[in-house]
Design a protein that fits this description.
The chain is of the alpha/beta class and about 425 residues long. It is built from 16 helices and 11 strands. Helix 3 packs parallel to helix 6, helix 7 runs antiparallel to helix 8 and helix 11 runs antiparallel to helix 12.
């Protein structure tokens, strides 16, 4: 495999050197750009530069990310000049739930300003949109639904209040609802489904220039799927994982339907979500992910997945769930891992395109490092390397030999 990396990997210094990758993407409608951590500056900046080029040169109009729908709507409205935020910092203050640094950071701030400027100048019918696909915003999504229905008087307010009343005793505490629903069978399935059914039946009534019909539909989807996610999380990690990733694809499909048949989307999520689960040990655990589902639902030529990785450097992460972040050293990759082989092939930034000429060269299963928002480097050999068939998991791979930590925004309203 090292010989094959030496043969097929190409060095790069900047976005212009990645022209062959842009060419390989071709006419794909779904481009999935991963990351090996949620706290690496180079992953964010490279994805941002690729995003700009795909928008300008290939007509992409949707950016979908591993973030909460309501929070990402603040970016969507800002770049489309809907509402009245005065600055990008004001917009990013909406990412006030841990891990805040994932989207409230300098690298994303620069991309958001670029998107706003592009939308102001473009003559395209569909301006570029920015949407969050994740499932965690149960309470915020219900708040959005009720606020809209109270303001407009449209159909569904009764069902929304019923759902809110059912969840209200849990005081916006996801863990409390998870324990009650998972162990005691005291749940809000019926109320959540009734709300979704009503919203979907009356979606046409919410149609306006502010995308309210889409906003209502996805917030209702979040309510139903978040209920299931929290209900299953205390009983089965694999089932709750599947609920989350299936939801992200459902939300994405709603956005794509809203934009129309010609829509093209850039998806920014962790490698563990975008890299096809069937090429990892997730398959044996009965787990699926976004990359797998999108491949299964579309023609192969319409989907292009790019993974990212690093040999060493620094990263933003926390030592425990919910605690303050810190800059953490990323040790040299474990011997025999994918990142170790990429480094041995040349201590430089490089990329690899998997195609019919070389896929068989990379069919051997190998450990591929994944860093989460919680990261303890001293224990990474016990759980941070995902056995992967790289040429099946991705269509391309970008390797940054030495990386640096992301730059979180220091906003007073952020809560850690």
């Amino acid at each position: 495999m090292l010989e094959s990396i030496n043969k097929f990997a190409k060095p790069f210094e900047n976005i212009h050197d990645l022209e062959p990758l842009i060419h390989a993407i071709g006419d794909a409608k779904y481009v999935l750009l991963g990351e090996a951590s949620h706290g690496t500056s180079e992953f964010y900046t490279l994805r941002a530069e690729l995003t700009k080029r795909l928008i300008k040169e290939k007509g992409f109009s949707v950016i979908a990310v591993e973030g909460d729908w309501p929070s990402c709507q603040s970016i969507n409205r800002y770049i489309k000049n809907i509402g009245s935020p005065n600055s990008v910092n004001e917009v990013l203050e909406n990412f006030n739930r841990w891990p805040t640094w994932m989207w409230a950071n300098e690298e994303i701030s620069e991309l958001v300003e670029w998107l706003k400027n592009f939308n102001q100048k473009t003559k395209r019918k569909n301006k570029v949109g920015f949407y969050g696909l994740d499932v965690y915003s149960l309470w915020e999504s219900m708040d959005e639904i009720i606020k809209y229905l109270e303001h407009t008087g449209n159909s569904g307010l009764k069902q929304a209040r019923n759902a809110f009343s059912c969840f209200e005793p849990y005081n916006r505490n996801n863990e409390s609802y998870a324990v009650s629903a998972g162990y005691l069978s005291e749940n809000c399935i019926k109320e959540a489904l009734a709300l979704l059914n009503t919203i979907q039946k009356n979606k046409w009534k919410y149609d306006d220039d502010e995308e309210s019909s889409l906003n209502m539909e996805v917030n209702a989807l979040v309510t139903v799927n978040a209920e299931e996610y929290y209900r299953t999380m205390v009983l089965s990690d694999s089932k709750s994982w599947n609920v989350r990733d299936i939801h992200m694809v459902e939300a994405l499909n709603a956005v794509m339907k809203f934009y129309g048949d010609d829509a093209k989307v850039i998806i920014l999520e962790h490698n563990t979500h975008v890299g096809d689960a069937r090429a990892t040990d997730m398959k044996d655990a009965g787990m699926v992910n976004v990359g797998q589902l999108i491949r299964q639902q579309n023609y192969s030529e319409d989907v292009y997945i790019v993974g990212f990785g690093t040999y060493s450097g620094t990263v933003i992460a926390s030592t425990e769930w919910g605690v303050d972040f810190r800059v953490t050293n990323v040790p040299q990759a474990q011997p025999g891992s994918w990142e170790d082989l990429m480094h041995k092939a040349g201590a430089r930034n490089q990329y690899l395109l998997f195609n019919n000429d070389n896929r068989e060269d990379f069919k051997e299963t190998i450990g591929h490092r994944a860093i989460g928002v919680v990261y303890r480097p001293e224990y990474e050999q016990y759980g941070n390397y995902v056995p992967s068939v790289m040429s099946s998991r991705y269509d391309g791979f970008i390797f940054v030999d030495k990386t640096n930590a992301l730059h979180p925004l220091a906003l007073e309203s952020l809560v850690y």
